[in-house]
Amino acid sequence: MKINKERRKTMKIKMLVMDVDGTLTDGKIYIGDKGEVMKAFDVKDGYAIAHILPENNIVPVIITGRGSSIVKERAKELKITELYQGVSDKLVQLKIIAEKMQCKPEEIAYIGDDVNDLTCINYCYITGCPNDAVDNVKHTVKYVCQKKGGRGAVREFVEWILTIE
After folding, report:
1. Strand, coil or helix: 58
2. DSSP for 78-133, written as a single string
């Protein structure tokens, strides 16, 4: 953990921004004749998003490069109202959301697994990744989860965030 103890005392996370493929899912994309047909999400991650975050006044946000009706349905199920799909520049979108929600970078936690997450990871103060993230990301974040993407990493990260506040 690389969080300065004095800085930790003044932090309050208001928003958790999550990637989807490789973070909320195991990164596998199943495609059939008619397009994308399946993604697997972890129920423990879902519980953290739908219950633990709201109990702690943390808004869940999804920013993902792909567009998917499956992700839209999962977000609806978890009551995630801030869903941004098909985003090519995640940092631009993150800054727009941060301004809308009046959040500073130190009030935003971010979890992602691949190089397209690095600009957001470098922007936010509290950052994490699943254990099976690419090395570049693992070397940049503040917390590397023991769990893999789609297998409870988001839940683990949420629980870690709550210990540092």
Report:
1. coil
2. TT--EEE-S-S-HHHHHHHHHHHHT--GGGEEEE--SGGGHHHHHH-SEEEE-TTS
Which distant-in-sequence residues (6+ apart) come within 8 Å of 82 by Cβ? Answer: 59, 60, 61, 62, 97
**Domain count of the fold of the chain:** 1
Name the maximum alpha-carbon separation found in the chain: 55
State pLDDT tens for residues 87-144. 999 999 999 999 999 999 999 999 999 999 999 999 999 999 999 999 999 999 999 9
CATH of the domain at 84: 3.40.50.1000
Q: Check if the beta carbon of residue 78 is closer than 8 Å to that of residue 60.
A: yes
Burial class (CB in 10 A: 0-12, 13-18, 19+), 160: middle
| 3-class SS of residue 36 | strand
**Could you list the residue range(s) of the whole structural domain that residue 147 is in?**
5-164
Spatial separation of the C-alpha atoms in residues 115 and 136, rounded to whole Å: 7
β-bridge mates for residue 108, sequence order: 15
